[in-house]
Design brief:
The protein has helices at 6-17, 123-130, 134-202; strands at residues 20-27, 32-39, 44-51, 57-65, 70-74, 79-85, 90-100, 108-116. It is of the alpha+beta class and 207 residues long. The chain has a domain at 20-121: Sandwich (Jelly Rolls), CATH 2.60.120. A hairpin with a 4-residue loop joins β4 and β5 (70-74). The chain is elongated. This is Transmembrane emp24 domain-containing protein.
Amino acid sequence: MFKINGWSIFLILLVYIFDSECIMWHLDPNTHKCLKEELHQNVPVTGEFEVSEAVNQKVDYVVRDSKGHVLSQREDISKGKFSFVTETYDTYEICFISRVIQGRGVSQEVSLITKHGVEAKQYEGIQEAAKLKPIEVELRRLEDLSNDIVHDFSIMRKREEEMRDTNESTNNRVLYFSIFSMCCLLALATWQVLYLRRYFKAKKLIE
């Protein structure tokens, strides 16, 4: 039976509360770096990036899924933002590509902040459009957060059921294979006994 304890709920709450990622690295000239993450269906994703300037160098970025579909793309970037909504459960990646136009090039500093899920939603716009009070906006955010947690729990339960079915199927196959192997060994042992018996009788070693 799939059980969820207090620590599991606490950890998932931490994941949602700190659901934004900030990363910084140095991008060498004429190289590229890709960051990948698995996301569920209909998850809003936002990102903010900044690239240090370098003479005769350009940096492009592209966001795509595992099938190669481009969700966002820009060339010769310095700083900016992007946003998209996932269509299916898939692995999504954002790549930064360095291009040196002339010379040997230098390493450039790239910083990226990504948010997804509840943290990526623009509640300020919802507040202005629906004319909600700050407490109502916070309640809306908490409601979305709880819905996402429930959705994740249902996905975890589904995965647990799939893993259990796979384990039971594997156990059954191992059992049938073991029975088949034992039958083969018994048949081979019987054939060997009968063959040796006929052989010894032919050589008149036994009656």
